[in-house]
């Protein structure tokens, strides 16, 4: 078991297999973003339940009900055990589903949220793999102009969510700003959602992860936003960012928690 304390000293005792992410800055920011909206007595759907951290957090906040879906069937029993270990509430359910594909037709929600993979280049998913990339998705499944930015999954999620949101319902996603905020605004506007940044923070890029896909995207004419300083004032090219990473120097990018409401 792993112990995890959020910045608000919220305690989680979690079973975390090696093929999923351990709680990190994205997790913290996702929790913090949710706390900026009123979820009391709401019915909430999470896309990508993972180890169940958000489920536990939400169930502790007096929501009416929680439903979590994940494409990886291996993670659902683990998420279930984590939820049972950390809360006594029973108003929750888990389902193996690719986004909302397997959700019962009559199900609707006040909020649909997710910390979804945002990877532009990746091999076909293998959910039987012990590798952490087994949690990721295959962009070729989602025919979207936003695939190049790793946002094809979010594009489809916005389309599907519109059919399941109640009146005044909204979506909430945590998204990387490595391709710039304008691309994220364009995504929401394409699907006719309002766009509201609830939270903006700066994240260090993992020195273990290559930036070659961003270098290629930049060579193809796309804008990339990396910085060499923690205040994100000194912007550099993806090529320079990759050279800095190889030399074990820190590189940063912006993260956003974004809320959208169907127009």
Overall description:
α1 (about 25-35) runs parallel beside α2 (about 55-60). A hairpin with a 5-residue loop joins β1 (about 1-5) and β2. About 25% of the residues lie in helices and about 25% in strands. The protein is globular. Mean pLDDT is about 90; it is low at about 120-125 and about 130-135. It has helices spanning about 25-35, 55-60, 75-85, 150-160, 180-190, 210-220, 240-245, and strands spanning about 1-5, 10-15, 45, 65-70, 90-95, 110-115, 165-175, 195-205, 225, 235, 250-260. The strands form three sheets. A seven-stranded mixed sheet has the order 5-4-3-6-7-11-8. A two-stranded antiparallel sheet has the order 1-2. By secondary structure, the protein is an alpha/beta fold. It has one domain: Vaccinia Virus protein VP39 (Rossmann fold, 3-Layer(aba) Sandwich). The protein contains seven helices and eleven strands. The N and C termini lie far apart (about 45 Å).
């Amino acid at each position: 078991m792993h112990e995890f304390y959020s910045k608000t000293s919220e305690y989680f005792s979690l079973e975390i297999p090696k093929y999923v992410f351990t709680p990190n800055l994205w997790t913290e920011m996702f929790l913090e973003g949710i706390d900026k909206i009123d979820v009391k007595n709401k019915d909430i759907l999470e896309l990508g339940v993972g180890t169940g951290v958000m489920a536990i957090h939400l169930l502790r906040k007096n929501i009416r009900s929680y439903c979590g879906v994940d494409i990886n069937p291996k993670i659902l029993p683990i998420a279930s055990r984590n939820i049972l270990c950390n809360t006594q509430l029973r108003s929750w359910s888990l389902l193996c589903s690719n986004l909302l594909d397997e959700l019962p037709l009559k199900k609707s929600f006040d909020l649909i949220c997710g910390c979804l993979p945002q990877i532009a280049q990746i091999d076909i998913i293998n959910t039987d793999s012990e590798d952490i990339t087994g949690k990721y998705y295959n962009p070729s499944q989602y025919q979207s102009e936003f695939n190049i930015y790793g946002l094809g999954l979010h594009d489809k999620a916005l389309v599907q969510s519109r059919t399941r949101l109640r009146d005044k319902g909204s979506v909430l996603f945590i998204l990387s700003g490595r391709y710039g905020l304008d691309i994220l605004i364009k995504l929401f506007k394409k699907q006719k959602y309002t766009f509201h940044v609830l939270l903006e923070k700066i994240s260090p890029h993992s020195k273990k992860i290559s930036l070659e896909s961003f270098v290629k995207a930049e060579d193809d004419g796309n804008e990339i936003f990396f910085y060499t300083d923690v205040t994100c004032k000194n912007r550099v090219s993806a090529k320079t960012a990759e050279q800095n990473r190889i030399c074990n120097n820190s590189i940063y990018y912006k993260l956003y928690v974004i809320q959208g409401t169907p127009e």
